[in-house]
Amino acid sequence: MPRRPQVVDLFCGAGGFSRGFLEAGYEVLGGVENAPGPASTYRRNFPDAVVIEEDIRRVSSDDIREEIGEPDVLIGGPPCEAFTAANAERRRDPLARLYDDPRGRLVLHYIRILGDLKPEVFVMENVPAITEGPLKEALRREFARVGYDEIYFNVIEALDQGVPSQRRRVFISNVPIEPEPRVSKPKTVWEAIGDLPDPDGGDVPNHEFKPLTRRKLRRIRRLRWGQALTRVKGAKGYFKNWLRLHPWKPAPTVMGGSRFIHPFDDRVLTVREQARLMGYPDDHVFEGGVESMYDQVGESVPPPVAEAIAREIRSYL
Questions:
Q1: What CATH number corresponds to the domain at position 223?
Q2: Which one is catalytic: 39, 56, 73, 80?
Q3: Which range among 22-26, 70-74, 135-139, 215-219 shows the weakest confidence by mean pLDDT?
Q4: Total domain count for the chain?
Q5: Fewest CB within a 10 Å sphere: which of 171, 252, 291, 292?
Q6: Are 19 and 145 contained in the same domain?
Q7: Judging by DSSP bridges, how do beta strands 228-234 and 237-244 pair with one another?
Q8: Which residues lie below 8 Å from residue 39, measured CB to CB, with a gap of 6+?
């Protein structure tokens, strides 16, 4: 039997990106992740993979070769805080977001390791704002500097792949990635979570009730579908937080710091319900503190999107 293509995941987090490649038949060799909670989650769900739990700025390509292996495909999603419009404090100069902001420079560390490992295919995920203004040409130069002259900026909407939440992301790669839509109409919140038992009921992992203060509970009871407790200022206006979801529509973008209110019950969604909105299967178990688990879900690549990308890449390997 031919060898399965092998993948390494930088900034692997809870493993949403890796999960999609696993489902598409790849061998997940391992990942790099510096936060204890996500690293523990990754180990739990990929027991045969190796996790380097270290700041990527202190990780060399030799470390990856020796501890994990040399991949056919390098994937990863560097943190988006330096680039996203949801960050009210992002740098005004787009190039400063990449070269001056310490979080933005993590993209350059992805490129550094990419240039050393020289995989056949790479895919780097981020928010579309990473291509604003002169950033796209700067990224082209950086990838060309390490040997990848032909670069594609593939924008994919998660709704098209059956994920029941809005999530438009750019996947930068050295091959074109244009997966066909999997669904004819978007999946709704209730289609995603309506079959789950009440929190703390049954044996569904990460489906525990999250208590609220009396004051917050009183305010939540007054919310109708689409209404929110708070508005958070971003770089380009405001976005809603603590929003009561509409059951018959897809959810808004799931983010690390965001919380959703159940469409019918006066409570916050559980980690499992939030994970369902990102397309995670129930056997993908999250570990760490509860706030860390919510963040792990919101900061990941939805597995159905990752799987669609992985299947596209198979034709190039």
A1: 3.90.120.10
A2: 80
A3: 215-219
A4: 2
A5: 291
A6: yes
A7: antiparallel
A8: 33, 51, 53
